[in-house]
Design goal:
One of its GO terms (molecular function) is deaminated base DNA N-glycosylase activity. By secondary structure, the protein is α/β, with parallel strands linked by helices. It has helices spanning about 5-10, 45-50, 60-70, 95-115, 125-130, 135-140, 160-165, 170-185, and strands spanning about 30, 40, 80-85, 120, 145, 150-155. It has a single domain, classed as Uracil-DNA Glycosylase, subunit E. A six-stranded mixed sheet has the order 1-3-2-4-6-5, sandwiched between helices. The structure holds uracil (URA).
Length: about 200
Amino acid sequence: MNMTWEELESTCGQCRKCGLCETRTNVVFGVGNRSADVMFIGEGPGENEDLQGEPFVGRAGQLLDKMLAAVDLDRHTNIYIANIVKCRPPKNRDPEPGEQDACLPWLRSQVALVRPKIIVCLGRVAAMKLLKPDIKITREHGEFYERNGVLMMATLHPAALLRNPNNKPAAFEDFLKLRKRLDELHLAPAPGDFPF
Ligand code: URA
């Protein structure tokens, strides 16, 4: 399936592949730079995201934006943000495995178009689905794994940090590690670049 962004966003916007379509206000497709080096993937839209049609615009999103800004990242310029499921699970419950599986092809197509060098999973649900089904995020956050030439890392979900602010320094360390990896990417000359 080689769709353009426009085709992908418009077909995804009409998706009825799982029951979440019955209760959504908006499909929350994704936001950001469609050629970013780094993609952040959350769990699913909450109430504010469902109403506004954009990922991470509630309290957790405000914290995420602050952490991103501290490492020179910004949702509108140098990253792309999406979720495992694009429609809000009622009462913000975890998305069910069948809902995640139904939605995953949309995310796969987004990743295929962005072609990020690094993918950051925000929280347990995204980390289990994309990185490691048995991940223990409290122990394994901040570790980089290579998957098909893409670096992947899981960090604590900003909503979890709001519930447990003691974990903010640990999560911030993950963002610093990410910054370092991104800086290293840009130090390496691209094929065809001459160092003189
Ligand atoms: N939490 C998520 O995982 N994604 C959002 O878009 C908002 C809150």
